[in-house]
Amino acid sequence: MRRLQRLRSKRKNLTSPPPGRNSNIPIVADFARATELAKSAGFDGVEVHAANGYLLNQFLESKTNRRSDCYGGDLENRYRLLGEVVEAAGNAWAPDRVGVRLSPNGSFNDMGSPDYRETFTHAVKRLQAADLAYLHVVDGLAFGFHKLGEPVTLDEVRGLYSGTLIGSCGYTHETAEAAIGRGAADLIAFGRPFINNPDLPARFANGWPLNEEVDMNTWYSSGNGARGYTDFPSYDDLR
Ligand SMILES: Cc1cc2nc3c(=O)[nH]c(=O)nc-3n(C[C@H](O)[C@H](O)[C@H](O)COP(=O)(O)O)c2cc1C
User: Fold this and answer.
1) Distance 53 CA to ligand 1 centre (A)
2) Is 190:171 a contact under the CB 8 Å cutoff?
3) 67 in a structural domain
4) Strands (DSSP E) along the chain, which ranges?
5) 54 is catalytic
6) Is 188 in the pocket of ligand 1 (CB under 6 A)?
7) CA–centroid distance, residue 142 to ligand 1 (Å)
8) What is the pLDDT of residues 62-75, one digit of tens each?
9) Domain containing 125: what range?
10) Is 205 in the pocket of ligand 1 (CB under 6 A)?
11) Domain of 99: which CATH number?
């Protein structure tokens, strides 16, 4: 019973600190620790995932962030947790070993807030000052679009962010080259085409056709051994 009361009072402290005071949100230290572990494991850097409806995205968006403390309310308060995480990860390694991922257009995990443009404009401007390795914006609509207005484009983000910028979601070789060519992004990330094309960079570089798209039920299908993991043929396998 006492344990329950202690837990309840801890929870109360966590969600309702006095206005204007930082509530030492424990997850910030977890991000720092994870960054240290990634460094010691030999990674090149870490990407702080503030996209697709996961925790940091939920703090950013007015739809999900109902806090009345210094982590909720106006744009800066909603950005605060992400800012603390980025700083902690940067201190644990170095700012230029830390990337951040945002999804201003996404509806995945029930995201999408009426003030999405202001929210993400603010976040991008704040991240500009963080000297990150890169900013990764899921600008494409292929994983769901909230349809609350015009999508935030890579070109728009480019106007706010002068560091290394990555775009992603639904790109083809052609649209990726076009985005990089017009200066809207420095890099484009690929997900699905990599799953069924293990040699994707070589296919792009040589103009080889891609494997036919496969039903997503065959991706990483559990209980089927290599099926959906390692059995997609390379272009050489097909020749
Ligand atoms: C099988 C699969 C699982 C994914 N799981 C996640 C996930 O857990 N969290 C997430 O934020 N994105 C997830 N994604 C999205 C990818 O991180 C990436 O943004 C997306 O695939 C890029 O777009 P593209 O596949 O059109 O190139 C997943 C994608 C695929 C194909």
Assistant:
1) 13
2) yes
3) yes
4) 46-50, 98-102, 134-137, 165-168, 187-189
5) yes
6) no
7) 10
8) 999 999 999 999 99
9) 41-190
10) no
11) 3.20.20.70
